[in-house]
Amino acid sequence: MILHPLVENALKYGTRSDAVPLRLRLSVAAGEAGGAAIEIANSGDWLHRSQPRPVGDIGGSGLARLQRRLDLLYPGLSRLDIQAQGKQMIVRLPLPAGAT
Questions:
Q1: Mean pLDDT, to the nearest integer, of 79-89?
Q2: pLDDT tens-digit readout, 17-73
């Protein structure tokens, strides 16, 4: 429920903004106060909504849906941190204790 949309997003948008081969890194580690920390990074750049998309691709809602799910499961205790660093996109998701 949590990893699938993160990996799907990294693959989908990473392949649109980076030359082959796409580089993908996934890590899950012990987080603060007994929780967990998930991080997924892919090579490529941030895709702006103004950039062209393939025909039939509505895209852009997977991470928003994931954040809504997390808000329902862990009200006020979860967040998705998304940032560009050089030629890669990184999504960090700290999870509270009891979430794993």
A1: 86
A2: 666 788 899 999 997 778 889 999 988 776 654 444 444 444 567 888 888 998 998
Q: CATH homologous superfamily of domain 3-46+57-95?
A: Histidine kinase-like ATPase, C-terminal domain (3.30.565.10)
Contacts 24+ apart (CB under 8 A), 13-22: 13/42, 13/44, 13/47, 13/89, 14/42, 14/43, 14/44, 14/89, 15/44, 16/44, 16/47, 17/44, 17/45, 17/46, 17/47, 18/42, 18/43, 18/44, 18/45, 18/87
- pTM for this structure? 0.74
Q: Are 1 and 69 in contact (CB under 8 A)?
A: yes
Per-position DSSP letters for 8-53, written without gaps between them: HHHHHHHHHHSPSSP-EEEEEEE-GGG-EEEEEEEES-PPPTTS--
